Amino acid sequence: MTQHTVGLIGSGFMAATHTEAWRSLGAEIIVWSPRSAEAFAAEHGIAAVASLEELVQSATIVDITSPTPHHAEQIRAAISADLPIVCEKPLARTTEIARDLVLSAEAAGTPLFPAHVVRYMEPYARAQATVASGALGRISRATFTREAATPADGTWFDDDAASGGILVDFLIHDYDQARWMLGEVQRVEATQHPATADGVVPALVEARVELTHVGGAVTEVVGRWGPPGSGFRATFHLEGTSGSLDHDSDAERDAASAADNEDAYRAQLRDFTDAIDDGAVARVSAVDGLAAVRIAEAAHRSAASGAPVGLI
Length: 312
Fold this sequence. Notes:
It is built from 11 helices and 13 strands. The chain is α/β, with parallel strands linked by helices and 312 residues long. The protein folds into 2 domains: 124 residues, NAD(P)-binding Rossmann-like Domain (Rossmann fold); 167 residues, Dihydrodipicolinate Reductase, domain 2 (2-Layer Sandwich), CATH 3.30.360.10. A 7-stranded mixed sheet has the order 12-11-7-10-9-8-13. The longest helix is centred in the C-terminal third of the chain and has 24 residues. The termini are far apart. The model has no long low-confidence stretch (mean pLDDT 95).
């Protein structure tokens, strides 16, 4: 791997996760955050810079782990500096903004990689390869579930306009998996209980989303945010004409599985740097990131209106 200086934007949980992955790949890391870059840098043994401008002047790759509302400004700054970009999901809160970012990166010839890390987690990668091989026959139905403790109160996650709540920020991984394994989505129908009121995301909430794919397969995506202390769990079930395939993170929660999931972040960033350095095709593209935002926004709109949303 070429020696890179990664300009990390953000100082939260995902910034720490990306820092460890980049360190394992031998990258030099600098960090900028509008509030706590110095404290984050001291905690993680890296250097802080004073501004976004200084970061893009010093980096060879920009890695954006900031809250979603800041992604557009930071992606555009990296495009202007002609720097490859890694950006945490979702690329943007809306399809319109995400599309503009993707088109701007394409026009500038700037690599833009959305960090859909679930594509690099072994159970999901194996499942996609199995589906692509035809071993399960034609997939007719799939179910993906994801549950965890609700994000802490008083953060940007509470603001529906900023985060999109459970339907956008949390379940976007599963929309991406459904599209990756079963193909393009043409219809989205979603419910959320309780509903979002006055722009404030509910703390304890369940969402159900039905995706109808081109070709007729149907995916159900279910998400839950539980009380503080709730454990994380993710499952999937794929049903084909020649067999089925299941995964449950609880059933596979052992030392090896934990290590596999930690390695997924490293595998993701190595894949991106291989694409940057050698022109290899990465497992996930900017177009994939845009498609996931489009599905997520349709789910959010469907839940708010009570009506299905067509995408094609």
